[in-house]
Amino acid sequence: MSLTEQQILRYSRQLILEQVGGRGQQRLLSGKVLIIGAGGLGSPAALYLAAAGIGTIGIADCDNVDITNLQRQVIHHAEDLGRPKVESAAARIRAINPDVRVRTYGFRVCAANVMELVRDYDFVIDGTDNFAAKFLINDACVLANRPFSHAGILRFEGQLMTILPGRSACYRCVFRQPPPAGAVPNCAQAGVLGPVAGVIGCLQAIEAIKFLLGIEGLLTDVILTYNALPVEFRKIPVHQMADCPVCGKDPVITAPMDSDQPICDMEGSK
Questions:
Q1: How many CA atoms lie within 13 A of 221 on its CB side?
Q2: Is 1 a member of any domain?
Q3: Does residue 264 have a pLDDT over 50?
Q4: 259: closest CA among 108, 73, 102, 124?
Q5: What number is the average pLDDT over the span 48-61?
Q6: How deeply is 116 buried, as exposed, middle or buried, from its count of CB atoms within 10 A (0-12, 13-18, 19+)?
Q7: What is the CATH number of the domain that holds 183?
Q8: What are 34's strand-pairing partners?
Q9: What pLDDT shows up at residue 178?
Q10: d(Cα 231, Cα 223) in Å, to the nearest integer?
Q11: 212 touches 219 (CB < 8 A)
């Protein structure tokens, strides 16, 4: 696949990067990234992946746009109120870059469909807002051998890590199971500063691009935390655990499982 003259102009600022070039841009144009959650994290990730020329972007979200979303979910506009988020997000992606093929999944991602979803993509971005979904995505990606970016935000803080199944620590290596109900404050109660979602969501997009380009330095075996108040980043080392129930030596989780706990995690989509 060769770049057209228009594509050379569009991506010119990337093409001059040594780590990208024409061959790298072709890899991006043939790449496929799935974003689960078109909210605070998924919005900036989708916008920048589209602008960068990711060839296929999948958007999975079962919610409609609500007025409370507009403070941070920048892919949705006031005129989208009541519209399915996948439709709103797809429209913005296509408006930014007609090179991008958008696939929408306007249903709840669950154990029955998650494996089929993630298997069709090169990289997955977890932009969800609850522990049940995060464990489900982790288990499915590990079982399907699909790399993915975990992230979450709350108040003025955010965190993210990248998982390469079989090669790095997974989410369950660090957090074995969802916390008890009530242990984590509700997203609506705790609040979140909108630009924090932009910072973390953009970092997720960078991780996806780095993976597709084969650039070293992915956030594997580390949790990157961000605190907007002192403007401080911190890396916390983590390790793949031999007794991890999904990626360890003797895994007990061999298929994705739904959870009955609708607990708000660091906020992403709602």
A1: 7
A2: no
A3: no
A4: 108
A5: 98
A6: exposed
A7: 3.40.50.720
A8: 58, 124
A9: 76
A10: 17
A11: no
